[in-house]
Amino acid sequence: MLKFNLETEQEFNSDVHVENILGTVEEGDVTVACWEPGQVSPNHCHPDATEIYFCYQGGGTMKTPDETIEVRPGSFVVHPPGELHEYTNGPERTLLFRVRYGKDMAPRFLEWPSNKNYKPSEDDLNYFNKQK
């Protein structure tokens, strides 16, 4: 059994959202993700893992190629393997609980316009070139 308290595990950073892996179970992990107002994730996917977000406090929007939805306390979003998604935080601090599971949880970043220091990796470039 794993047991955590999201309120004591939270850590915020004004430069970039913080993802703190709390524990692992077999082919998965559980994470607390902390977002300051206006922070944006990379537009990314996990080719070989499912990713689930549960909004504990705060909220924002989750965008996929097909739709954009509002994320607010009590809501959760499930991204199947390979689904491209990007989270934009709203006007207040947000605490998300995330679960990932699959044979490989590595992300592939398509782009990250809000991060001026982002440069795509060779693996990211190769992955998205194969998708075309």
Write a brief structural summary.
The protein is mainly beta. 11% of the residues lie in helices and 45% in strands.
CATH superfamily: Jelly Rolls
The CATH topology turns out to be Jelly Rolls
Strand order of the largest sheet: 1-2-9-4-7
User: Uncertain spans, ≥5 residues at pLDDT below 50?
Assistant: none
Total separate domains: 1
**Helical content band:** 10-25%
CATH architecture: Sandwich
| CATH domain class | Mainly Beta
**pLDDT average, as an integer?**
95
Q: Count of DSSP E strands?
A: 10
Largest sheet data: 5 strands, antiparallel
Ends apart, CA distance between termini: 42 Å
Into which percentage range does the β-strand content fall? over 45%
Could you spell the SSE succession in H and E letters? HEEEEEEEEEEH
What does the model show?
This protein has helices at 6-9, 122-131, and strands at 18-25, 28-35, 43-45, 48-57, 60-63, 68-71, 76-79, 86-89, 94-104, 108-111. The protein has 132 residues and is mainly beta. The protein has a single domain, classed as Jelly Rolls (Sandwich). A five-stranded antiparallel β-sheet has the order 1-2-9-4-7, with no helix packed on it. It has a three-stranded antiparallel β-sheet with strand order 6-5-8, with no helix packed on it. Strand 1 (18-25) and strand 2 form a beta hairpin. The longest helix is centred in the last third of the chain and has 10 residues, at 122-131. The chain starts with 5 loop residues before the first helix and ends with a helix. The mean pLDDT is 95.
